[in-house]
Amino acid sequence: MPTFHVINDEKNNNLNHQRFISQIKSTISYISWQDATFTEEAIYLAKKIAKKLPDLSSNNVVLVIGDDTVLNETLNGLLAVKRKYELPIAYIPINADTNFSNKLNIKTTQSALHHLQYITHPTFLAISKITGDIPKRQTKYFVNSLGIGFDVALTTHQNNKIIHQKKSVFHSIKNYFAIATAFCNQKKFPVTVNFCSEYRHFPDSFLLTLTNKFNLDDISSSNNLIEKATLEMIVVRKISIVEFFINMLFKHNNPKSNIVHRVPLSKGDTIHVHDIQPGHLDGTDLGNGSFSFSVRQQSYPFWV
After folding, report:
1. Exposure on the CB side of residue 122, measured as CA atoms within 13 A
2. For residue 222, what pLDDT is reported?
């Protein structure tokens, strides 16, 4: 049986969340329970867990209850502590409409809790590692995506839809108005990528996304996972708001489109954004700055 060490996101606490937390506490056995009450606190809590637990083969599992942002913070906190035996991460989303939930085919929070009780061993999933100026000099990891430019506004829009999905029409109108304003304010910026001994320059980009892709059906071992996992860069050039929505609907998957560019990335490829732009990592704010970093993929154990 796993020994759970819980990191619970308390930042968006409400009555339904409190009821679900009570259900979790009565369902699983856990050794420690810690609440993250402010941004990036989960990084500190994860570091503390990784330092405290013996670096030995064990049944210790870090259970994250929250959204993809808290999941990302926990992953980066655990990997900030050098260990021979990595601590697996279990995940119960507070809302089943997150990117990682969709990858894991989690339909509801209740199904995630039910499934957790029947897992007997970790599964190695692909995560992505970036090293360089992002925007300050550092190394970071992500399970879903990195976004620069207008992608930050899109991610904020999606998160607000999740938070306010059962609230008034006013919230929806306010959300769409915010994304339209962000679109109009977003200036184009140059992107340079060196990949597979090739060089490409996109002078008028307004959105850049790196997407970490894996298929649970392909997983049999950590080595096989990395062979089949992919990391893709998408660059969208600056266009009018009408063109943007038309091309998202009809040309997003068109390989001949001169608006949306897809670039498969591999270990050691480098990306440069020669302008001050906002960035995010799995929804975690990276701040504003210029970006210059290398990419690679590796495996990490998840209790899923």
Report:
1. 24
2. 47
